[in-house]
Amino acid sequence: MTTDAATQTWTQRLANPTRFMALSGQILPWLTIAAIAVVLYGLYLTFFVAPPDYQQGETVKIMFIHVPSAWLAMMGYLMIAISSFGLLVFRHPLADVSAKSAAPIGAAFTLLALITGSLWGKPMWGTYWVWDARLTSVLILFFLYLGLMALRSSLEDETLAAKQTAVLGLAGVVILPIIKFSVDWWNTLHQPASVVKIDGPAIHSSILVPLVVNAVGFSLLFFALHMKAMRNEVLRRRVKALRMAEVEQAARGRDTSSATAG
Amino acid sequence: MSGFLTLLKRDLLLALREGGALGTALGFYLIVVTLMPLGLGPDLNLLTRIAPGILWVALLLAALLSLPRLFEADHDDGSLDVLALGHMPLELVAASKALAHWISTGIPLALMAPILGILLNLEARAYPLVIATMLAGTPAISFLGAIGAALTLKTRRGGLLLALLVLPFYVPTLIFGITSISAALLSPAGFQASFLILTAISLVSLVLGPVAAAAALRQHMQ
User: Fold this and answer.
1) A6 belongs to a structural domain
2) How far apart are the CA of A143 and the nearest CA of chain B, in angstroms?
3) Is the ipTM here above 0.90?
4) Which residue in B90, B165, B207, B222 has the most chain A C-beta atoms within 10 A of its own C-beta, making it the best mutation to test that interface?
């Protein structure tokens, strides 16, 4: 064990699903508690502490959900892309498990970002939807998530499905810079980046603090959900392997019994 | 390189002598463009305004129709396996097939667009713009489409899935194809910026498409 630990990187050590299950089993409860606590605190700040904006009024509070969701929509795809790279290049056994379980979660956050955005857009811009660069590119990201899930479900062979989805996931990564910089490249209705900027955030701290707390809470939630989904996927594959072994054994037993009977 | 040209010539000959695919694509293009005025009403001013958009969207759909055949025939009769075993890299094979698709489908569709423009009352000065943007943009359609065609080679209900996978990748081409036309109609100076980006997308897809398609094809071979 000690020599293993010395020569292997942590990703290599996690390649053993049993080790991953043991480690994630220890981390997951704490991660879940932390996620719930931070999200609850973030919601408390959102509803009771953060002041209404002088222009946007109470609708600014939609932003506390919208902005973290949009960040996680992109981070989810980044996670899929990195996992796809890990599968295609390093053949890491857990990479596909990670890519598969990240897709529905990322798609959910993308949908959440789109829905909250249009709910905010109605009172502010006067319309639920505009075809501006940021909105359109996020919608494309949502379609990419759907395409990844559809491609995976349409291939019977699971290992083939994993690799093909990884190819699509890596090819689709070109959309991420387009989303990030769409508001800088084109003059659009959606406001440009205002939190992560070189010369400091352009938001007052009374709004910024709840936003950051929510972002941290949502990220913890994402990681907790992702880890839980990965554990479920590992267990699902084990059950499948056991079933296959059982069927094989039963078939062999019937063969031998029919052979002796014959 | 000779292998690349031989394969290209073979695919073009096949496309020419089979004949069906191109006719279907052009016919589909005609039908979609014809349906638009029926759905939108015969207001000529409205049609003039949205004609470039209709022509572009219909072109995407028509090109999409022929994409599933890109690797399918060669996969079914086993010649794709022979090509994969040969000394030519699979990336070049995919590139040659996509190029053949562009020459046999993309260019005819782009050249047919001005004829359909008459149906939509397209402005006279927009004709060269439509042809130019389509000739610059259709390579992206063929080369990015190759990724989708390779991925859906063995899937059930492949055609519909192909549309779902590939259309998101087409959106930048569509947007910049349209914006360069409309920018040029407003002021001649505005044309260059969008047109350069459109060309850049095509050039990027020339690299991305064959590499990703070959990676997908290799998984099928294993």
Assistant:
1) no
2) 7
3) no
4) B165
Mean pLDDT throughout A74-96?
90
Asked if residue A262 has pLDDT above 60, the reply is no
> What is the average per-residue pLDDT within A69-95?
91
Mean pLDDT of chain A: 84
CB contact under 8 A, B212 and A170: yes
Distance of CA A261 to the CA centre of its chain: 56
Answer yes or no: is A193 within a domain.
Answer: no
List, in sequence order, every beta strand (DSSP E) within chain B: none
**pLDDT tens by residue, B103-116:** 999 999 999 999 99
Q: Is the pLDDT of residue A218 over 90?
A: yes
Question: Rounded to whole angstroms, how far apart are CA atoms A161 and A237?
Answer: 14
Q: How confident is the model at residue A219 (pLDDT cuts 50, 70, 90)?
A: very high
Give the dihedral sign, CA B93/B75/B158/A236: negative
pLDDT of residue A18: 85
* CA–CA dist A99, A170 (Å, integer): 11
> What is the residue range of A99's domain?
12-54+63-186+208-261
Contact A165, A152 (CB under 8 A): yes
Confidence class of residue A73 from pLDDT cuts 50, 70 and 90?
very high
Please name which of B176, B173, B184 lies closest in space to residue B127, comparing C-alpha atoms: B184
State chain B's mean pLDDT as an integer.
88
- State the amino acid at position A162 in one-letter form: A
Note whether residue A229 is domain-resident.
Answer: yes
Other beta carbons within 10 Å of B58? 23
A63 bridge partner residues: none
Residues of B in contact with A170 (CB under 8 A): 212
DSSP B7-41: HHHHHHHHHHHH-HHHHHHHHHHHHHHHHHHHHH-
How many domains, in total, are found in chain A?
1
Residue A197 located in a structural domain: no
CA gap B217, A228 in Å, rounded: 33
Q: Which of A147, A150, A164 sits opposite B219 (nearest CB)?
A: A164
Considering just the CA atoms, what is the radius of gyration of chain A in Å? 23
The answer to whether the CB of B214 falls within 8 A of the CB of B91 is yes
